[in-house]
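_Backbone structure tokens_
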Amino acid sequence: MTEPENEFSFLPAQASDAGATGPLPRAERLSLALADGRTLSALRYTPVTATTGPAITFLHGAGLNAHTWDTTILALGLPALAIDLPGHGDSSWRDDAAYVARVLAPDVAAGIRAWTDGPQVLVGHSLGGLTAAAVAASAPDLVRDLVVVDITPGIDPNGGAAQLRAFFAGPTDWASRDEVVDRALAFGLGGGAREKVARGVFFNTRIRPDGRVEWKHHFARLAHDAAHAGGLSDSPRAERTDAVAAVLGTTGWEDLAAVTAPIALVRAERGFLTDDDEQQFRAHLPAARIVRMDAGHNVQEDQPRTLAALVQSI
């Protein structure tokens, strides 16, 4: 694949996908030093006519990064913030490999306080959805509305999420980004469009000094180590756990029950959630709104305009 000039070089093509015809928003990379020495990174998008800061904050899923929201944000046309969760994108990895909602929530809350001026419509996909619930429960002053995309606490880790575990359990480095694109297409990821998959791979990988390509996110290393635990006696025990199963714990129900903001669940028709998962969500949160969309698990990439319209209506 041809290397773009910078991480925002794709915005014109993404704006076309989003049906956005006006001037591109100002896009900037943000960085926040956390108290323990780690760094939290994010993207902020500001339309040229905007007079206020972001009122919508987006949190991505496991193995993704803030750029997964680009097209949705362009379709939205409003000031927005997209945060790289710890261990993903340009945010620091955690030494303890603890990528569960309640551990990630304080970092996200710190980012929202630093980069926005008021309560947010907080939109979280998958791991980001569970993290968003934990943020809304622990810092209600930061969240005006909560939108959870294609995730509920306690879903079966051997269901749809198993595909991601298998995908990331493969090699952790590659000769080229094209090899990563080929693997993603072989797993049926990215909707089958090579150009779209290549764009995602660019955002989610980096080139090491030795010329090899590696994943930016920690989940690939964790999944690989879990799959090959028998031969990794020198690996930290935390890195030999099943990171996907850890993400999908049931404590999220307690967080959702504590949320005072209005809640909406977006269920992807071809996503991770089953009818039983939806019924359980209704039983736990009868006042919540449930919206179905014709999309795979990554709704923000499959149906960015539809998701943007939903967020805009809140």
The longest strand covers residues 26-33. DSSP finds 13 helices and eleven strands in the chain. Residues 206 and 214 are 6 Å apart (CA to CA). The two ends are 39 Å apart (CA to CA).
